[in-house]
What does this fold into?
Amino acid sequence: MEKEALKVVNRGEEDEMDVSGYRLCRWKLAIVGVGVVLTGGFLLLLLYWMPEWCVKSTCTRTTIREAEVLLLRSTDEFKRWFRAKVHVMLAPGKNPFDCPDSRTVVNGHTPHPAENQTEDCERKHSEYQPVQIRYFTLHSTKYYWNDMIQNFEVLKGLEDLGVKCSSVHDDHSKGLTEDEQDYRRLFFGENEIAVKVPSVFKLLIKEVLNPFYVFQLFSIILWTADGYYYYALAIVIMSVISITTSLYTIKKQYVMLHDMVATHSIVRVSVCRANNVIEEAMSTELVPGDVMVIPANGTIMPCDAVLVSGTCIVNESMLTGESVPVTKTNLPNPSRSAKGTEEDEIYSSELHKRHTLFCGTNVIQTRFYSGELVKAVVVTTGFSTSKGRLVRSILYPKPTDFKLYRDAYLFMLCLVAVAGIGFIYTVVNSIMNKVPVPTIIIESLDIITITVPPALPAAMTVGIVYAQRRLKRIGIFCISPQRINICGQLNLVCFDKTGTLTEDGLDLWGIQMVENSSFLLSETHACKEDLVKSQFVACMATCHSLTKIEGELSGDPLDLKMFAATGWILEEATEEETALHNRIMPTVVKPSKQLLPEAEASADQDMPSYEMGIVRQFPFSSALQRMSVVARLLGEKRMDAYLKGAPEVVASLCKQETVPHNFSEVLEGYTKQGFRVIALAHRKLESKLSWHKVQNVSRDTIESNMQFLGLIIMQNKLKAETPGVLADLRRACIRTVMVTGDNMLTAISVARDCGMVPPQDRIIIADALPPKDGQTAMINWHYADNPPEHVSATGSNPEEVQIRLEEESSGAALHSMEHYHFAMSGKSFAVIAEHFQDLLQKLVLHGTVFARMAPDQKTQLVEALQSVDYYVGMCGDGANDCGALKRAHSGISLSELEASVASPFTSRTPNISCVPSLIREGRAALITSFCVFKFMALYSIIQYLSVTLLYSILSNLGDFQFLFIDIAIILVIVFTMSLNPAWKELVSERPPSGLISRPLLFSVLMQILVCLGFQTLAFLWVKHQPWYHQWTPSSNVCSLYNYSLLQNETNHDEHNIKNYENTTLFFISSFQYLIVAIVFSKGKPFRQPSYKNLPFLISSFALYAFILFIMFYRVDAIDQFLEIVCVPYQWRVTMLLIIVVNAVVSVLTENLILDIILRKFVFSRDKQGTCGITSAPPAPQQGVDRWGERFLSFLCCQRRRAPKAKYMNLAQELLVDPDWPPKPKTTTEARKAPSPENGSYQIISAT
It folds into this structure.
C-alpha cells in the first residue's frame, strides 16, 4: 500500500482543500456489507452522514494519481469532509489549448464525454489512440489531473495560460475553428451555469435521512410497539408537516435561483471563426478563446470576455451594486504602442476589468469603427465566470459558525448522557421486579426518546422565523435566516463612508485654480463667461466617462456633477453618422450659447463654433486613482491631454514647477474640513501625434509632464440619521469603524463630524513604508490634529504643533491615555499585514479609520477583526463592499440591486438606521433561542423525572397524557413564547454567545433541582396519605366519584397507568411546564416584557385555567381520556399549595439569586461586551460589594480567570506595555530575523 503526503487543491483560495487518494478494497466492502445487514441498515446511514468514515472503512490508501476515490477536507475552521469519485475521460490530448491535428479530433459536442465515444473515435480514425484524462467533480467544478504538478487543478480559461495583453490581440483575436472549439468543449463543457432543481423525491430522501428524522422514526416505531398509537400518530403528523414545509422552502429557493440564473443566460451569439466567417451559434457552445461579436443594440453577456476592438457601455449592477453605466474600452495592445513604450502586462480580469465584459452584465450599447465589429475574446465560461462564482457561493455556502449551534449539540449530548443514566436505572429496576424482557427493552429505550424532545429543531427556529417577519416589516430582507441570531452578538460594525455614512452624491463646493504656480482665490462657480475657454473648465468638460443613453446623460455621479457645473453640452454621433466615417466619431462637448461672449454668440453661423472632441479615453482606475482623456479643440492641429484624480497622484505626474509650493497645506486644509478634493492637470501634445497614433499610445506616455491646473472641492454631506445612529451604537458599547476608499484626512474629518471619534479623543496615524533599497519595512507614527475648530489659520503645519505639545507631556501621561484611535491608509494596511503581523492585532484593537482601502483590503480587515474574536458587522452600499459583506458575521447592504445577493441582509432604507434595528432583532431572536432551548431542555427533564419516578412503581404516563403535554402545552407555549418583540433601544449589555455559559447552566440546573424536589416531594407525600392504597378500578376514595362507571371498566391495565402517583405527577408536572415557561420567558433588556405578548399571555392563562378546572372539577369524559383517577379534595388543595410554592421558589431562584446576586458578583467577569476595552479601577464606595463578591466567589469556587475573547486579553496586555500607544516622532521597524521574545518589530525613537 503506497502512501503519499496530502496534496492541496485551490491553494490560497477560499475553497482550499486537502486531498488524499483511496482505492476500493473488496474485503473491507464485504465487512461493511455484513455490518449493514446486522445493524438493519443503520451502519449505512452512519456512513452516509460521515464521508470520512465511509471512505476509510471501504477503501485503502493509495497515491492520488492512482486513486479511484478521493477524500477531501476543507482547510478552513469548519474542516468539512467531502467524497469524490475519480472519472476517466478520453480525449485527443491533455492540454485544452494545444489542439491536435484536426484529423484526430474527437467529436465532442456532448458536454460530458463518456467512454462510448471511443468506438466513434476509432471508427473515424483507426490509427488514433485516445489519451485517458482523470478528473473529478465537486461543487459544480471539474478538477483535471496535471502530470506536470502531479495534482488535480481547475481549468478556468485563458487566464490559466498567463497570456499577455499583446498575445490576446495577436494570438487569440482571430477566432477558433470548429474542431478547436469542439476539442476545448471536452474540457470546459457547456457554457452554462446550470442550477438543477432537484426532484421532490430526491429532496424528500435527503430530508428524511436527516439524523433528527431518523431518530424520530425510531421513536415512532418504539411508541407503536409500546401501544402509544395516538401519540405516535401525532408525532407522525407533526413530522410530515415539518418535512413538507421544509421541502416547499428548499424547492422554492432552488426555483428562484434557477430562474434568476436562467434569465438571458442562453442567447444566440455571433462568433468569428479563424477564416473570418461570422457564424450564429448558441451561447452554450462558447469556449475560452472564442471571439464573439457584441451586437450594436446590446446583449446580456453569457460569459466573461475581454474587448479587443470597439467600446461598450455596460450596466454592471449585478456585480457591483451600482446601476451607473460603465464605459468599457478595448484592451490596449502594447505591440502597437508608439515606440513600444507601454509595458506588456499579463492579462488579468481583475487588473483589466475596465476592458472586461463580465457574465450577467448588460451591454447597453456599443461604439465601433466603420466596417470593424466590436469583438471580445471569451476568457471564462460557465461556473468559472464572475456570475458563476457568485451562484456557486450561493449553492454551496459555508456553514454558519456560531457558538450557539455548537453548544446546542453539546447540550444534546448531555441530555443523552442523562438518558443513559435513566436507561441503566430502568433496566436494573425492571430486572429486580422481574419484568419480561420485551417490556424491559421497550421501556428502557423509551426513556431515551423522552429525554430528546422531538419538537426541538422546530422550536429552535421559530424565534428566527418571527424575527425575520419583523425585519421584513421594517424593510430589512434576509436571505440567510440563521445569521439573525449572530446579529445579536455584534460588538463591532464597519461602515463604508460614501453612500453609507454620507450622501451618495457630491455637491460642488468650489474650485481653486492655479496661475503662475500659485493658487488663486477660490470660486464657487465654474459656469462663467470669463472661464469658459480656460483649460480648467475644458478639463472639467472633457475628462469624464459620460455617455448618452436614450437621450439622457448617464455615468458616474461625480462626473455628472462636475459636467453640470460647467454648463456645457455633450453630443454623441449616431450610429448612422459613425458608419459614414472611417473611424469612431468622437464625443463632442461645447459650451451652451448663454456662456459664450455675445460677440461670438451673434457671429456668422458659418464660423466654426467653440467645441471639443474627445479622441481617446483612459478610464478611471481605482489602482491608479486617476483618469485621463485626449481631446482636440475644433480648428486646432495639436491635441490636448487632460487628467483628473487624487491630488497627490496628479501632483506627482505634473512638472514640479507648476505645482504651488503650498499645495500640501491647502490640500490638508480642505481635507480636514471633510471636503473631497480632485486635482486637474493639462498638457499640450506633440503635433506629430495623429489620431491613429493616439489610439495606440500608452497611458504612461500621455500622463506625464503635465501642467497643474488646480483643485475641485466637492462636499459630501453626512446623512441626517448618521450621528444619531452612531451615538446609539456607542451607548450600546458597539465599536464603529470606517472603511473607505476616500482620502485619509477627509475620512478623519468625517469620523469626527459624525461622532465616530469623540472630540476629546486622539487619532494616531500609522504611515507604513515597504522595504526599499535594503532597508526593512517601517512605520512612522504621528498624531493627527485636533478637531477643525482648533486648527491654526496661520498656515503652519498643525502636525508639528501637535508633536511639540506631545513632547512637552510626560511619558506617563501618554501611557495613561486610553481614548485613542488609529488611522491608516490601504497601502499602510497592506505593509503592516505583510511585515508586522504581530502588530496588526494591536492596531485593529483601536483602529477606527481605514482610508484608501481596496475591496480586497476591506475583506482582509474584516478577517483581522474576526481573528481577535470580534463579532463583525459590515454595512455598505454594495459597490465595492461585496467581499467584506460576505465575509463579515453580518453583512448589511443598502443597495436593493442584485449585488445584495452577496449580503445576508438588504435594507430598503438607504441609511444606517437599519443597523441598530437589526442588532436589536438579533438580540431578541438570540434570547428567544436561549429561552426556548432552556424550556425544551426542562420540558424533557421534567417528563424524564416523572417517567423515572413512575417506573419505580412499574407505571408510566398514559398515551393521551403524553399527547396533552406535548401538543396542548409544549407546542402552544413554544410557538407563543417566541413572539416577544425586540426591546425598543440598544443597551450596553450583550447576550451570551453560547449555551455553555455559567449563568445559563446555573439557571437550567437550579430549575431541574427545584422540579426534581417538588415532584419527589409530591410522589412520596401521596403515599403517606391516610386514604392511600394501591389503586384498583373498585377504589372509592372520592365521594364525588361516580361508582357506577367503574363497574363497566375492565380490570386490565397493561401499563398500570391509573394510580394516585400518576395522577399526582401528571398535575404537578403540567404546572411545572407552565412555571418554567414563564420564568424563562424574559423581557428587558433584550425583549419586550411577556405581558405585552398577548398570545403567550392568553395561552398561558387558558392552560392554567383548564388544568385547575380538571384538577378541582371532575369531568368523566376528560378523566377517562387522560386516564387520571379521583383523589380527595384535601389532596387537590395540597397539590395546589405544592404548585404555588414551586412557582415562588422557581421565580426567586431565577430572578433574585441568578439575575441579581450571582450575575452581579460571580458571573460579571463572563461578560465580553462591556463598554470600553479596559476596565476602570473600582471606586472606594464599592468596598462592600467587593467583599460580597469575594465571599460569593469563594463559595462558588470561582478563580480569577482571563477573559475568553482575544481582544480582551490583548487589551490587558497593552495596559502594562510601557511602549504603547506609540509616541510621536518614533518609528517601528520590522526585524529581518524576528526573535520569539520581541516579536517581529522594534520601536525606536527618531533623531
Notes: The two ends are 66 Å apart (CA to CA). The first strand starts at residue 7 and ends at 9.
